[in-house]
Amino acid sequence: MERTDSLDRSKSIAVDGELQGDTLLSVCPQTLPSGKVFCLSHYWSRRSKTLVQETEKEHEHVLMDETGMRRALTRIAHEILEKNKGFENCMLIGVRTRGIYLARRIAERIMEIENVPVPIGEIDVTRYRDDRSGRPEHTKEDAAPAMDIHNKKLILFDDVLYTGRTVRAAMDALMDLGRPQMIQLGVLVDRGHRELPIRPDYIGKNIPTSRLESIEVLLQEVDGMDQVVITQQRRQNG
Questions:
Q1: Helix H or strand E encompassing 182
Q2: What domains, with CATH codes, occur in the chain?
Q3: Are 60 and 215 in contact (CB under 8 A)?
């Protein structure tokens, strides 16, 4: 093996780990103590991780902060009360997981506005989806145990409306539980690209997107913060 005993100091890292430039040329491990090689390796591992994080941040944009989310949910609460002339015979249903927490927040606002009790339930649509292979048999207990929805006005709430398949699955699950008087739909974010004829009654924010973008709703109860974030996904070659 040919030994490389020198580094270009203007474009390299010194052996003691101090940064002298951006490019490490070539170092034969045999010319340095193992600890020194580890130091260089540790630097580049840490540097690579930092570059990846910086690149990811360049493709991320906050669309809604805590204040914007609070205002949107308050507005939706008022719209629900106006559309239904109060909240009599109504019930909020949150789609697991984030839809549940959003429904609870709306319920709190309705109680503050009207000073009336707000029935609230939750539903799990996992076993009702038609876009996942190997769907197991489902039962009423899988969707929402012990929830009486017969002849009630249901306001189904989820975080993001995309293709509409989650909403369709939620309606299938609800129909297994009983026959509601009607089902209304509310979402925090409508990002478009519907594959089914579904349109929400209540929308926090319309956000036109491409299919290369993803929308993520972060909630204090789950993620430790309230934000709506859009991320640009990289195109794959080939």
A1: strand 182-190
A2: 1-58 (no CATH), 62-232 (3.40.50.2020)
A3: no
Mean pLDDT of the chain: 80
Place of tokens 């297994």: 176
Structure tokens at 60: 């991320």
Q: How far is CA 167 from CA 23, 47, 92, 94, 174, in A?
A: 52, 43, 14, 11, 10
In the chain, the amino acid numbered 116 is: V
The label of the residue with tokens 């002339």 reads 85
168 contacts 182 by C-beta, under 8 angstroms: no
Q: Which of 230, 160, 220, 166 is nearest to 191 (CA)?
A: 160
pLDDT tens string 53-92: 544 445 789 999 999 999 999 999 999 999 999 999 999 9
Q: Is the pLDDT of residue 98 over 50?
A: yes
Which pLDDT score is estimated for 37? 45
Number of Cβ atoms within 10 Å of the Cβ of 132? 11
Please give the Cα distance from 24 to 46 (Å, whole number). 15
d(CA 231, CA 115) in angstroms, rounded, equals 39
In the 8-state DSSP scheme, what is residue 19? B
Q: What DSSP element (H or E) covers 108?
A: helix 98-114
What confidence score (pLDDT) does residue 21 get? Answer: 44
- For residues 149 and 202, give the distance between their C-alpha atoms in angstroms, rounded to a whole number: 20
Torsion angle of the four alpha carbons 137, 141, 142, 143, in this order, in degrees rounded to the nearest 10? 120
Residue 45 backbone class (left: φ over 0; alpha: ψ -120 to 50; beta: rest): alpha
Side chain identity, residue 140: K
